[in-house]
Amino acid sequence: MGIVVVEVCDGNAITSIDIEEILEKEFPEVAVLTNDCLSFCGLCRVKPYALVNNRRIFGNTPEECLDKIRAAIKEELAMYE
């Protein structure tokens, strides 16, 4: 498992892109977990989001959300440098 954990709900729009493959290829320190539900009822229908080390990251589109997730991962990894 990675030092940065990204969790996504499988009902979320972010899953329209292969977030797991993209992030784990770019960042070997990252583990992407897909869950049936992250218990933020209805949130996954409103806009794409993910949890990065338990911090909610949102975007208006899956691509925008992915860019924000990348930035959050870089912030988390900076603590280990």
Describe this structure in words.
This protein is an alpha+beta fold. The chain has a domain at 1-36. 36% of the residues lie in helices and 25% in strands. Strands 2-1-3-4 form a four-stranded mixed beta sheet, with helices on one face.
The overall pLDDT, averaged over residues, is 87
Rounded Rg: 12 Å
State the separation between the terminal residues, measured CA to CA: 19 Å
Strand content: 15-25%
Q: Number of helical segments?
A: 3
Q: What structural class do the secondary elements suggest?
A: alpha+beta
**Fraction of helical residues:** 25-40%
Shape: globular
- Compute the number of strand runs: 4
Which regions have little confidence, pLDDT < 50, spanning 5+ residues?
A: none
- Describe the main β-sheet briefly: 4 strands, mixed
Q: In which order are the strands of the major sheet placed?
A: 2-1-3-4
The H-and-E topology, N to C, reads as EHEHEEH
Annotation keywords:
81 residues, alpha+beta, 4-stranded mixed β-sheet, 3 helices, 36% helix, globular
